[in-house]
Each structure stands twice: as structure tokens, then as C-alpha cells.
Amino acid sequence: MKKCLLLLLLILGLQATKAQNPLITHMYTADPTARCFDGKLYVYPSSDIVPPKGRDFSGFCMPGYHVFSLENGATWRDHGWLLEENDVPWSEKDMYAMWAPDCVRKDGKYYFFFPAKAENDKAFRRIGVGVSDSPTGPFKWEKSFIEGVAGIDPGVLVDDDKTYLYYGGGHDLFVAPLANDMKSITKEPIKIVGLPAGYKEAAFPLKRGDVYYLTFAHVFPEEGYTIGYATSDNPLGPYTYRGKIMDNIENGTNHHSIVNFNGQWILFYHFWHISGFNKLRSMCADYLYFKDDGTIKKVNPTLRGIGMPTIGDTIQVDRYNEIGKAQTAFVNGNEPKGWMVTEAHTNSYVRFNKVDFGSGNANKMQARMASGQRVGCVEIRLDKLNGPVIAEFPIEFTGGWSEWKTYVVNLKRKTSGIHDLFVSFKAEPGNTKTVNLNWLLLE
Is the same domain home to 46 and 182? Predict the structure, then answer.
């Protein structure tokens, strides 16, 4: 318990990660449902907290929902509480049982679906709904849950003039058509057939072309939680299982969504690599790709995520796409809490994809570094490890490995557009540790 509390205090001190993984660092977020409305990306996650005094720490403690939006392609804005458990008209109070939600738009209105434990009801969870004129609320909550539906993890598909509610939790997943009011179902739920055996939850439907995709969390006894998917030519099924989108990543659970944003498909999911505890999770995102035959390429989780920093944004190179002969660790000294690249020796490198140089107005670069020695340099190269050098920072003694200094150098060439950065560490041959690197910044 003490370990988890310390970890919570640590994460509350972290700075925004500029859409690198994990996406949110000032609180714990799980079960992210991502939606694109009017060209803007929103994410509706659940939230994990350290249980209040007297409550068992062995289970999830989830009090409600925030909503986040992506601003300027790099920074997440927290719009605050969208719904707290004790504000649900029909739920049992203080259950901390607000699991994965969804939000969709139909006919100009936004509908937020969520599971909760109903008062005086035998069902494990019921599903409720609220309606708003804005994707960030406020929402008007229905006085009761959706009759005829008992389960968790609502996932909603808006398919032209028809809408379908998917849900489950257990060995089966279900689907039911929603009425035009989005607050009731028109037919009894049916079990989705064609899915593999085993525990399944986190049903998330989408349509691409004429193909319906049902993605879901799937537990393999020998592997644990994975993300799988199936396809059909009918939203009600039957479906054909196609395989895994993401392997188990040593998670206690995984829960996901898929969205097309600016022409690029993105997989959102959660992981607990910050807290070290699988009941305190953090949402992440990585790019997803379809093959020519419509199947989905397996996604490997990264630290880099989906953000595209530009002039004036800190470039957290510790959230790398690729690293060679170096490590990452929590920042030391009196720096704001975060991560750094460390244990970098000569010929160590870090690759950080997709930095937007804009129209070429950047003329300087900053680097936040700490070093206990005075030999070598840090080269910033474009697009390849042996690409052109655009900036070079001399390594100097800053007072020690935890004494930080910001260096500013002129860019060696005008650069515009989107490029990958390679950070290359140079020192004398041998085992000389070069420098600790916190961040870069274009100006």
C-alpha cells in the first residue's frame, strides 16, 4: 500500500507528456474510448485511484470519468469531471465501480454510455446513458438504466440511420439495436457468434468500408489479456475471428478503442508501467495499420505514442521510437519529475519520429543536460543515424550527473516539414558515460 501511495505522489508531479506514452500523467486513466468529432480528437477514459481509507486495495477503485481533447496535435487538455459515480441517479453509492464508457454523436447530440452497479438490482452492472449538446458536457443523465441490458463495457456503433449497443464481460459478448432516442433497445440482445472461446470484454465496434470490425479484449489462458478482432458483413454477425491486434503486454488487463484521426488509424489502450501496479493504469496510443486485404497489422506498444511536437514544444526523447546502447530512467536532481535518457556512451543513439519543423522558421535548439564529465558531444541528425547534423551540443561538466543546465545552439541548416530526429552520443572510445539528456526544444 505504501509503495502505491508513493507512486501516486510521484505521478502527480509529472509534467504533460505532449501526447507521448503514457498520454496523461497527472492522474491514472484506463479503458480509453477515443472519438473524432468535427476534426477534433476526444478521449473518454475511466479513472483509477488509490482506494480511500478502509477500502480493500485488491480490486479496482474507479470513481468516474474525465474527458480529454488533443490540442495543437501535441498536448492533452483535461476538461475535468464528466461524471462521478454518486451523481448517477440510479446507481448504488460509493461503489467505485465506474468501468469503461463510450461516447458517440447522433443527429447533433452526444450520448455518453457507462456501466454502474444499480441499487437493489441483482445484475453485476447495468448500462446508463446521458445526452449533451457538447462532447465535453454537461450531460443530462437518464433517471434509470437501459432496460434489458446487463453487462459492462458499452461500445456503440452509429451506422448511418441505425445504432447498435455492444457489451459483455464474461465468455460472451452481446449486441442489441438501439432505438432512435438512444436510450432504449428495440430488440432483445443477441449473443455474438463466431468469436473464440475464453473470457472476453471491452467490445469496441467500427466500420471500415463495407466491413464491420468487432474488436475486444480476449484472455488466453497461457498468455493473459490480448486485444483481438473479428469481421462480418453484418453488424449483428456472425463474425469471423481474425487474430490479435496487440499481444499481452504484462498487463493485468487491457482495454482499447480505435479511431481514424486526420486520415490515420490509432489504437488507444492502457498499461501500468508508471505505477508498477495493475490497478493504477495509464492510457496510451500507437498508430494502427490495415493491410490491403483488410486485416489489421499487429501493434507493438511504444513509449513514443502519437504526438507531433513542433517549434516551442519540449521533445521528450526518452519517449523514443528506438534506442541503442542507452537507457531511460526517472529524472534525478531538482528537475521537475519526468524521464531522461541515461547510460549513453559513445555511439549510443535515440530515434524520435515525427517532429514538425513547420515552414522552416526554427533557428535554434535547446537541450537540457547534466554531466559529470567534460568529453564529447551530442549530435542531432535528420531522418537517419548517418543523416545530416542539424545541431551539436558540446558535453561539459555541469556540476554532476544530477546538476542540470540548458544549452542553446544555432541550427546548422534551415529545415522545414516533418522529420525524424536521431540523437547520437559521441565521446572517447571506451566506457565513458557521456551525458544525461532530459529534453530538446526547437525555437
Answer: yes
Catalytic residues: 31, 201
Q: What is the CATH number of the domain that holds 323?
A: 2.60.120.260
pTM higher than 0.85 for the full model? yes
Considering the domain architecture, whether residues 108 and 255 belong to the same structural domain is answered as yes
* pLDDT tens sequence for the chain (443 residues): 333 433 433 333 333 445 688 999 899 999 999 999 999 999 999 999 999 887 776 789 999 999 999 987 778 999 999 999 999 999 999 999 999 999 999 999 999 999 999 999 999 999 999 999 999 999 999 999 999 999 999 999 999 999 999 999 899 999 999 999 999 999 999 999 999 999 999 999 999 999 999 999 999 888 889 999 999 999 999 999 999 999 998 878 999 999 999 999 999 999 987 888 889 999 999 999 999 999 999 999 988 889 889 999 999 999 898 999 999 998 988 888 788 999 999 999 999 999 999 999 999 999 999 999 999 999 999 999 999 999 999 999 999 999 999 999 999 999 999 999 999 999 877 668 999 999 999 99
Q: How far apart are the two ends of the chain, measured CA to CA in Å?
A: 44
Q: How is 129-155 classified by DSSP, letter by letter?
A: EEEESSTT---EEPSS--TT-B-EEEE
Domain boundaries, position 325 = 314-442
| Max CA separation in the chain (angstroms) | 73
Calculate the alpha carbon distances from 151 to 148, 247, 413 in Å.
10, 25, 58
Q: Same structural domain for residues 167 and 24? A: yes
